Amino acid sequence: MTADLIGRLREVVGPSGLISDPGEMAGYLTDWRNAYTGTAAAVVRPGSTEEVAGVVALCREAGVAVVPQGGNTGLCGGAIPDSSGRQVVLSLTRMRRIRDLDAANQTITVEAGAVLQSVQEAAAAAGRLFPLSLGAQGSCTIGGNLATNAGGTGVLRYGTTRDLTLGLEVVLPDGRVWNGLRGLRKDNTGYDLKQLFIGAEGTLGVITAAVLKLFPAVRSRATAWVALPGPQAAVDLIGVLRGLAGDRLTGFEIMSRQSVELVLRHSSGARDPFGDRHPWYALVELSDSLPVAGLDGVIESALGEAFEHGLVVDAVVAANPAQAAALWALREGISEAQNHEGPSLKHDVTVPVSRIPAFVEGTDRALEGAVPGIRIVTYGHIGDGNLHYNLSKPVGSGDEEFRARAGALARVIYDSTRAFDGSISAEHGLGQSKRGIIADYKDSLELDLMRGLKQLFDPRGLMNPGKLL
């Protein structure tokens, strides 16, 4: 990259909006797990959509690739540049404004760099709910959530980020700005263009703002921690809960005993809700907009019915918000706790809910056959079929030896996922980590159509190259 282009970019974003010092750029060039590291000619931090458009247009003119980045909390390296040193990282973190909140229309319009938690708080201040909830919500951005079609714990009731989005503003690869910020729930005027950019991981354009759906505020909750004999019981319990609670069933998370043990071992203050060990657990949450909705009675009735059918071994219902938070901490602490055990081989798969029990049984058996003593850390949003199927090394084995098996072990999981009509990425995206193998697990015609869209929008291949495709 020439000094002339650096100077022209600085003119667009101002002196504080461009970083070229290697030390100052470091935090933008490595993901939070230190799994992916690249280099860049510069990090550009525009403060407006107009500045984003100016940056993209200049880079296109110079033939320089752009890597959009939000909170840099991804797990697949999708926001990290390559090692060439010729790419520009385009960080949206200065664009954090809440542009509008329309309570009557139940919408909020936010810029892509807005942190998810700040959007939740803005909605709450207006007596509304923005239901997207992730472990990284204090640092991930709306732009990143959109780019990966993030899921989280509320998908069971509210859907993914795609379902929560009504309109987008996008800077296209040629620098033009598409203003699709329409808060309409009905717009039958042709192709729904916003859907092309959601989940595209910045390969078709740079999302700069979005109109998101809001919902009535939650005024009552009931939370329970449930011991289960196995995954089949979890699937059956979802049916019982849906039958009694309907759409008040907001969350249903499943965790293996191995997952919970890691949290109990490494998370300060974590306590086992039961005196006995159980093979599987579920975290169940009901919610309602009514302040007095009788949810404790509903969840207790459902658990009582489940006990009668042998689906539940033990259960505890949180008596207050502090107890509910402690139960959620057991679930949300799994990923971090696993990192204390050496390499964590993370996989994010989805299969039809009805097939989860057979999938878990068959995949566990195949992994244990491949690496005796392997520790399988399985947990996730079982209500929508999404499992985080993570692996830790056998006790006493070496880190590098285990890392060397990562590709082969991923194949075991992905082959099993395909056999059960699933997907090798439920909510983390493809990024760098799965780009090389997606062709083995996705229909060739689908990939041809995706490549055609990429060629149409970005014929020079300058938008986040080396990711997704």
UniProtKB/TrEMBL annotation:
InterPro entries, alphabetized: FAD-bd_oxidored_4_C (IPR004113), FAD-bd_PCMH (IPR016166), FAD-bd_PCMH-like_sf (IPR036318), FAD-bd_PCMH_sub1 (IPR016167), FAD-bd_PCMH_sub2 (IPR016169), FAD-linked_Oxase-like_C (IPR016164), FAD-oxidored/transferase_4 (IPR051264), Oxid_FAD_bind_N (IPR006094)
Swiss-Prot/TrEMBL keywords: FAD, Flavoprotein, Oxidoreductase
Domain FAD-binding PCMH-type: 36-217
Gene3D superfamilies: 3.30.465.10, 3.30.70.2190, 3.30.70.2740, Uridine Diphospho-n-acetylenolpyruvylglucosamine Reductase, domain 2 (3.30.43.10), Vanillyl-alcohol Oxidase, Chain A, domain 4 (1.10.45.10)
Pfam families in alphabetical order: FAD-oxidase_C, FAD_binding_4
Family listed: Belongs to the FAD-binding oxidoreductase/transferase type 4 family.
Name listed for the protein in its UniProt record: FAD-binding oxidoreductase
